[in-house]
C-alpha cells in the first residue's frame, strides 16, 4: 500500500552526515510539531537528481521557508557517506537535510520503492515530494518516471504551499 494524503508517516531512523560525523535522525525529530518538505530521489549524484531536482530545492530554499516551512529534507536509498558527499559537492550541507535511508526501510514502508535494476541501480526510492505537517502527509507528488523531476520539483511544491 502506498502512503496517501492524510496518512501519518511510519516511524523510521535515518543517518545524516554532520560536521561532527554521522547522526541518527528519527521521524519524530524531523517531523513532530513541524511543517517539513520532504523530497526523495532515486540516487545521489544521478543526472536528474543532481542537475534538476536537488538544485531546484536549494535555489528555492528561502522561498519555501518563507511560506511557513520549518525544514527541507532530501532522502535517498544511499549510505550516509554518499549523501554527505552529495551535500558537500552540491553546496547543500547545512541548508537542507540529506537523509540516508540506507536499507530502504522507510521507502518500503511508504510503498514508494522501485526496482531500478534494469538501469543498474537496484532497489531505490521513487522520485517524489511531500509536505508533512506534524508527521501527517498534506500533499504528495510522485513522478511516473524516475528520469523526470516535474511534479515533484520545487516549483510545484511552492505552488502547493
UniProtKB/TrEMBL annotation:
Enumerate the GO terms in the molecular function aspect.
thioredoxin peroxidase activity
Q: What class of enzyme is it?
A: oxidoreductase
Keywords from the named record: Antioxidant, Oxidoreductase, Peroxidase, Redox-active center
Q: Please list the reactions this protein catalyses.
A: a hydroperoxide + 2 glutathione = an alcohol + glutathione disulfide + H2O
The UniProt record lists the keyword Oxidoreductase: yes
A GO cellular component annotation here is:
cytoplasm
> What is the name attached to this protein's record?
Glutathione-dependent peroxiredoxin
Amino acid at each position: 500500500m502506498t502512503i496517501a494524503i492524510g496518512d501519518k508517516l511510519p516511524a523510521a531512523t535515518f543517518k545524516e552526515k554532520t560536521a561532527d560525523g554521522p547522526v541518527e535522525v528519527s521521524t519524530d525529530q524531523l517531523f513532530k510539531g513541524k511543517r517539513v518538505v520532504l523530497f526523495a530521489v532515486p540516487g545521489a549524484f544521478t543526472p536528474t537528481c543532481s542537475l534538476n531536482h536537488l538544485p531546484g530545492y536549494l535555489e528555492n530554499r528561502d522561498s519555501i521557508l518563507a511560506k511557513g516551512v520549518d525544514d527541507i529534507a532530501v532522502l535517498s536509498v544511499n549510505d550516509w557517506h554518499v549523501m554527505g558527499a552529495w551535500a558537500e559537492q552540491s553546496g547543500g550541507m547545512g541548508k537542507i537535510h540529506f537523509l540516508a535511508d540506507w536499507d530502504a526501510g522507510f521507502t518500503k514502508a511508504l510503498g514508494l520503492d522501485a526496482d531500478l535494476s534494469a538501469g543498474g541501480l537496484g532497489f531505490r526510492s521513487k522520485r517524489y515530494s511531500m509536505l508533512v505537517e506534524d508527521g501527517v502527509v498534506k500533499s504528495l507528488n510522485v513522478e511516473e518516471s524516475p528520469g523526470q523531476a516535474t511534479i515533484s520539483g520545487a516549483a510545484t511544491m511552492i505552488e502547493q504551499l
